[in-house]
Amino acid sequence: MLKSAVSFDLYAKPGNNRTLTLLNPKKSFYQWRLRVPPNCVVRLVVTSLHVVASESCATHRLSAYDFLLPLQNKIITRWCGSGAWTPPVIRLTSSSNVMLLTISLDRREERNILKAHFQAIPKIMCGGHYISWNGSLSSPYYPSYYPPNIDCSWIIQAPSPAYKLSLKILAIQIQEKSPGSSKCDKDWLEIDGVRYCKDISENGRSREYGYSVAINFHSDELVTHRGFYIEYRAFSNTDSCAPEQLNCDDGKCKHQSKTCEGDDRCREDSSENNCSYKSCLPYTYKCLNGKCLLKPNPECDGKRDCTDGSDEMNCACGRHQFKKNRIVGGEDAQSGKWPWQASLQIEAHGHVCGASVISKRWLVSAAHCFLDSDSIRYSAPSRWRAYMGLRTVNEKSNHVAMRAIKRIIVHPQYDQSISDYDIALLELETPVFFSELVQPICLPSSSRVFLYGTVCYVTGWGAKKENSHLARTLQEARVRIINQSVCSKLYDDLITSRMLCAGNLNGGIDACQGDSGGPLACTGKGDRWYLAGIVSWGEGCARRNRPGVYTKVTALYDWIRQNTN
């Protein structure tokens, strides 16, 4: 068979569809090796498949593999049989940036056998912690086939402990358990400790749970299906109002999204009086007028949720305009890709720390960068210069903006012994002008949530390996946010609520000496970048089970705003 094999190598960039067509095949075996960029996965869409009946599936089939070799333990799906493959079309997703598609034929055919296309789609992280009155969640890329070799964990929580959660599984199509097995041992959906791996009767699709419910999804390395789709809502057995509504003292119901927005559907002596900021829950967003929103991450999402519009006021940030990692284990960054990155330098010493541009007059960095030594007064603003629009250290260019530092504000609660409250604000002597190479990064409000597993980027000119020299060209490294309790255990409970962990638990990718004060940038809605963390500390650089520790910006958002007006 291999003597008559025909192979094709195809590559797709994001936004492009590459077509696969097999017309009047003359050979018995064809294969397509599909590739996309490293941070993407392959989505294959088979729109038409028509083959003549065959007695043997061994020689007459279409197979897709989560690898570039036809390994049996990497099969995503296989189809064999007679007649046409009728709609709905099949959509397959790989777990990485490659996929192999093969078709075996046992006879020559004069017809269109296969029509398909593939594209590069962003690799998404599944799971998270949701606090909501209602919503939905699904397997990754639903209704496309979920990728092999993934694990997702969600926690769904009602906004109030007085409510319970009702879940309904609207669709479930998962690889079934092994024959003779008493439990789901291949792919499974787990809700509150109960595992599912086959279709459920209509009567068994809806269940009630407590105030919080844990949902886990697992797929092994082979054979995937469409997955699942779940809707959930919060409810109360004693509440006469709908879950998304508020009970007013006069017995009337008021829509929750209007709560604390100043309308008068509740009487003046009713629940509306309890809408001061102090009574708002920690995850709620505070509008400029003091009112609070239950909507998660409302700022800069393109919708005006506060009556005063303050959730959409400070949104000229977090966008790069480049056209076309220390970072340990990173790579050179393209010019203009991280336009909020600044280099803090001292004459005769060169680059010392990183910083992030947050406005025309202010930078944010780490407090430990400004601790005096026996020989240098790092706390003196006059010693520092900030360079913005820089890609290469000591770069001489008209595009590079240099500013003197007028003032350094170190957080009054900064604790040098444990690196708590490791943040400092730098006021520039004169404003910097924004350009294609200099832009501010968005500050995430105290209510913004960055889910565990979220892919972010750390940038800087720090050492490329532990105890090495600084990088000459700006480096970038792709890291994931790590569960706070996991990180705390790894660091013997030294992680405070003002700290955030990110990296790779296997090691190899991390920030290092010289990256201090630089940004940990994560995207939000509309590809807008937010300053999730500030490079703070860690044990060594890129060591196994020693992720980078960052100052958690959401925990210090109010302090930043108060001090930068």
Task: Describe this protein with a few key phrases.
565 residues; mainly beta; six-stranded antiparallel barrel; 2 helices; 36 strands; globular
Write the layout of secondary structure elements.
Layout: E1 5-11, E2 17-23, E3 29-35, E4 40-51, E5 61-65, E6 75-79, E7 83-85, E8 90-93, E9 98-104, E10 112-122, E11 128-131, E12 134-138, E13 150-157, E14 164-173, E15 188-191, E16 194-196, E17 206-209, E18 212-219, E19 227-235, E20 245-247, E21 253-255, E22 285-286, E23 292-293, E24 331-332, E25 341-346, E26 350-357, E27 362-365, E28 384-388, E29 401-410, E30 424-428, E31 455-460, E32 475-482, H1 484-490, E33 499-503, E34 519-523, E35 529-537, E36 548-552, H2 557-564
Parallel strand pairs: 1-3, 11-13
Antiparallel strand pairs: 2-10, 3-9, 4-7, 4-8, 4-10, 5-6, 5-9, 12-19, 13-18, 14-17, 14-19, 15-16, 15-18, 20-21, 22-23, 24-32, 25-26, 25-28, 26-27, 27-30, 28-29, 29-30, 31-32, 31-34, 32-33, 33-36, 34-35, 35-36
Mean pLDDT, all residues: 81
Largest sheet: 6 strands, antiparallel, barrel
Radius of gyration: 27 Å
The CA-CA distance between the termini, in Å, is: 73 Å
Please count the helical segments: 2
Uncertain parts: 82-88, 256-276
Overall, the morphology is globular
- The number of E-state strands comes to 36
Tell me the fraction of residues in β-strands, as a range: 35-45%
Give the % helix.
under 10%
Largest sheet strand order: 31-32-33-36-35-34
Q: Tell me which oligomeric state these chains represent.
A: single chain
Structural class: mainly beta
